[in-house]
Every structure is written in structure tokens, then in C-alpha cells.
Design brief:
The chain has about 450 residues and is of the alpha/beta class. Helix content is about 35%, strand content about 20%.
Length: about 450
């Protein structure tokens, strides 16, 4: 029987129901057998069960003869970095990121912080754990506690010139997740290199009880606390992270939330200013702003399937300097092609300082030229039937159809993308238009009405 905690690329589930210490110990054993890593980096987030689950993972690895490098409380990107930094054969991060408080999970990578192929090693690990894997006989591995944070900080700071970062105030909301201590170390080093920035901190201390709610700034109901703090403090912009800070979210100086696709365009612009002609990878859900901005700046836009494994693989294949998804995952060639939630705010801060323009102005033109709906999720009885109904009703004539990732219908002046979730009966809709918000809103409502017939 396949365990429910194994998803497409990672492990996550409800504690005590889908995931417990015994399963974690089995994952450690299975990772050792399938990946033969020699050594593995382990990290954890602040959740109540994360230390217990990390210890169980470590035991499964150690009893299988694998050396364990424990970097303790950290962000997911620090596990990615440490895996590469220590030349370990793999990395495991215990985290449930933005999931509800009774959830936990594990993110897994192989040597070089590369994703484990979902139809290869990851499936083999899943099958071994599901079947029940016993502790092997043989010598134990060695456990040691290390930190890669100083080297990690130097790497993320290598993306910016501290001397150019002057006279700005930034509001940061760690959401009581893991971001606070890492941010403090980065900020101290940044100021030490000559940056003239000041910071306002909100919900900064890690606290696994999440007294201010689960850190998931993508949810509209969670945004006002950061937006209000930006306005109250007079910050030049705001940044909020999810629990393991592999995603970051931005608010301009007025407190307005900035949708992820516009950040992809802005970060692409910042990179192309420094490396003309570079390749930029993007996902296909909302893409007109990114593609036209990159092309206008002399870069080369490259579309990829949605999802971190796909984006990273595409970036490696074309040697892209940067890749971004509208879901606020941002990937960097010079960071092992991995996603980071710390590098983006540094680049945005440098870009705001260099241009002398407020963030609202840097984003405003793109918002006006390419308004978008944001991702709308529908719980449906039959996602395939809903998609077919919409395509039958809309396709034809001048419509271009693309099935790279779900179904995309391009009508010239507006475009939609419909995707099915791989893990739940959810249909995800994104709509974008060319300079016509009224058209965007009208078409979005028309499609909403069609999907409502299939909602649960």
C-alpha cells in the first residue's frame, strides 16, 4: 500500500495520521539504500514535531551506515546550499512550509541539491517505505553538527552590490517561521559590507505554535498584517515569507500585494541589466508580461512545465541565469539552480536603490499592460470534464491551443490557463489580458460560471 504522505516530489501529511517518526525512520533507511549517499545533510523547521522527525530520519540513515551532517533549525534553501557545500550525497529538510499546523513533511534532494527524479529514485524510496524496510546490519554512520550559514550568506550576498543599497527601509515578516535568524545574519553581513538599509521586523521569532497564524502570505486573508505594517512604518517595501522561506512575497510602499508573475518580470529585468542576452525561464500559467519584458530587454524567454523539478531541469538544459514561477518560487543558476526566498528581496532592494524608483512604479506599468486574475482554485467533481467543457465552449476561430501544462487558450487579447492539481480534485484557473482589465474581469467571470457547474 502506497503511503498517503508521498506526493509528487516530496513528503507531507497530517501528523499521526499520514506521517510519524516510524515512517521518517523508514524514509531514512530507504534514502540510504536507494541513493547510496555516503553522507546526508539534515535540517528542520520550527514545527512542534520537526525535531522528533529529524531525529528519526537521522537514526534511519545512521543505522544504514550513512554519515549525517545536522545543520539544525534552518530554511530549506540552507539544506540545498549545505548539501552542495559539504559535497554530501543528499539533503533532507523536515518542513511542512505553509501547510496547517497539524502537518509536517520532508523535502529531499540528491548530490548537488538536484531534485530526485519523481519516477526514479523518489518512487523507489516510496515503494520501500510502503513495503516496510528493516534496519540493515553493518557499521553505523557518524553524526556531526555543522553550520554552512557563513558560506551561505556570502553566496546570497554575491548576487548584489552592497554599496549600491542605500537609504531604504524594508519591512520583513517572518511569520514566526524559520526566516528570522537567517535574515538577521544576512542583514548584519549586508550592513557590514556597506549597505545603508534599515529594517522593521514583524513576527520575527521562530515559534512552532504559530501565534499569529500559519505563515502563508499567498492567502489573501493573511496579507493585511504585512500591508498595514508597511504603511504604518513608512517602509519602502515589505517582504513576507512562508514557513521554510523558500518563497517570498512582496508588498509595495503603499501596502499593495504584488502578484508573483510581476516579480518574475522585475527580477528578469534586474538580471538582464547585469547580463544582457541571458535566458530566463518562466512557467506557462501567466506569461505575457515576462515574455515581452525579457524580449524587449534583449533576453531569451524559455517556457517550462510548472513545478520545481521541471523548472530546474529546464534551467540546466538551456543554462538560464534565472527562473521564476508565479507561485513565488524563484530559481538562480548561481545558487545550484535552486529556489531561494532570500536572494529575491536582496535583488529587489538593489534594483529599487539603483533605479531610484518606488516599487509601485517599477511594477505599475506591467500591471497596467498585462492585468491578470491571479490563480483561482475550484474544488470540482470532475476536473477533466470541466476542462473539456470550457475548451469546447471557447476554442475555435482565432484561438491558439497549447497543452504544455494543462490547457492554455490564447485569443490574442486575452488568454487562459487551466490545470488540474496532481494531488487533489482541484482545478486551477489563470486569466491574463492585454491592457484591458474590464475584458479580463468579464472573461474571468464567464469561466467561473462554467466551472461552478462542476464544483463540489
Amino acid at each position: 500500500m502506497v503511503l498517503e504522505c508521498f506526493k509528487s516530489y516530496d513528503v507531507r501529511g497530517r501528523v499521526g495520521t499520514d506521517l510519524d517518526a516510524d515512517i521518517c525512520r523508514g524514509i531514512g533507511r530507504a534514502f540510504a539504500q536507494v541513493m547510496d549517499p555516503g553522507s546526508v545533510v539534515l535540517g528542520r523547521d520550527i514545527r512542534a514535531t520537526s525535531e522528533e522527525f529529524q531525529a528519526a530520519l537521522a537514526e534511519g540513515l545512521l543505522e544504514s551506515g550513512v554519515d549525517v551532517i545536522d545543520i539544525e533549525l534552518c530554511g530549506t534553501e540552507e539544506v540545498y546550499f549545505a548539501t552542495d557545500h559539504f559535497d554530501a550525497g543528499g539533503g533532507l529538510m523536515v518542513t511542512a512550509s505553509h501547510n496547517p499546523i497539524d502537518y509536517n513533511g520532508i523535502k529531499l534532494v540528491e548530490r548537488g541539491a538536484r531534485p530526485i527524479p519523481p519516477d526514479g529514485g523518489f518512487r523507489e524510496i516510496r515503494d520501500l517505505v510502503s513495503a516496510g524496510i528493516a534496519a540493515p546490519d553493518g557499521p553505523r554512520g557518524q553524526l556531526r553538527h555543522e553550520t554552512a550559514r557563513p558560506a551561505y550568506i556570502q553566496r546570497v550576498l554575491s548576487f548584489v552590490d552592497a554599496d549600491r543599497m542605500q537609504g531604504r527601509k524594508i519591512l520583513v515578516n517572518a511569520g514566526n517561521g524559520c526566516a528570522g535568524p537567517t535574515f538577521d545574519a544576512i542583514a548584519e553581513a549586508l550592513v557590514g559590507k556597506g549597505a545603508g538599509l534599515s529594517f522593521e521586523r514583524l513576527h520575527h521569532q521562530p515559534d512552532g505554535s504559530f501565534p499569529n497564524g500559519i505563515p502563508n502570505p499567498l492567502l489573501p486573508e493573511n496579507r493585511p498584517v504585512t500591508a498595514n505594517a508597511v504603511r504604518d512604518t513608512g517602509a519602502d517595501f515589505g517582504v513576507a515569507w512562508d514557513g521554510d522561506f523558500d518563497r517570498c512575497f512582496f508588498f509595495d510602499e503603499t501596502g499593495d500585494f504584488i502578484d508573483g508573475e510581476y516579480l518574475v518580470g522585475l527580477l528578469a529585468e534586474a538580471f538582464l541589466d547585469k547580463v544582457p542576452g541571458a535566458k530566463i525561464v518562466h512557467d506557462p500559467r501567466v506569461m505575457w508580461n515576462t515574455r515581452e519584458s525579457v524580449t524587449a530587454l534583449g533576453g531569451e524567454p524559455v517556457v517550462s512545465l510548472t513545478g520545481h523539478a521541471h523548472v530546474k531541469a529546464t534551467m540546466r538544459r538551456v543554462d538560464a541565469i534565472y527562473g521564476g514561477e508565479m507561485s513565488a518560487h524563484h530559481y538562480f543558476r548561481d545558487f545550484m539552480y535552486c529556489d531561494s526566498g532570500m536572494i529575491p528581496w536582496l535583488i529587489v532592494a538593489e534594483h529599487v536603490c539603483r533605479t531610484g524608483k518606488p516599487l509601485s512604479e517599477l511594477i505599475g506599468t506591467a500591471r497596467a499592460r498585462f492585468p491578470s486574475s491571479g490563480e483561482i482554485n475550484f474544488h470540482v467533481t470532475d476536473a477533466a470534464a470541466a476542462m473539456a467543457t470550457i475548451e469546447d465552449a471557447l476554442a475555435g476561430g482565432e484561438c491558439e491551443i497549447d497543452r504544455l501544462d494543462g490547457t492554455s487558450l490564447d485569443f490574442g487579447n486575452w488568454r487562459l490557463n487551466l490545470r488540474r492539481s496532481s494531488t487533489e480534485p482541484v482545478l486551477r484557473l489563470n486569466v491574463e489580458a492585454r491592457g484591458d482589465r474590464a475584458l479580463l474581469e468579464r472573461k474571468t467571470e464567464e469561466i467561473r460560471a462554467m466551472i461552478r457547474a462542476f464544483e463540489t
